[in-house]
Amino acid sequence: MLSGGFFSTTTQAQNSSQKLLVSKSNNPEQASQDKKLRHVVLFGFKEDATPADIRKVEEAFSALPGKIPQIKDYEWGINNSPEGLNDGLTHCFLVTFESEDDRAIYLPHPEHKAFVDVLKPHLEKAVVVDYWTNE
């Protein structure tokens, strides 16, 4: 699993101008029309989760953009990295918001909570990373 140490080492290896650029692009106070808030969600499923169980989770997550208007874009996929560094995480979901307010509506939204109820019985682990990016 990626830890703070990994990112600290990576950041230390960058020159100061790159650090400044990273700081600017990830600063929520500087969000503007050309930036989007990305919500990256990685899942690893329990060994006893069946393909049908996992498909239900995929379908439930994929239904959220049609139910929560604050979701501006959505995509997902299954890990196919040859590096073997996924630490049991098999599924990646990318949700895009235009603002932190939109994310704040999404997280406690009843449809999101219903999705979590579908997910929980099958989930072994999850990692969530949110960041601002330039489009």
Automatic annotation (TrEMBL):
InterPro entries: Dabb, Dimeric_a/b-barrel, HS1/DABB1-like. Residues 37-131 form the Stress-response A/B barrel domain. It holds the Pfam family Dabb. It comes from the Bacteria. Signal peptide: none annotated. Homodimer. This is Dabb family protein. It comes from Membranihabitans marinus.
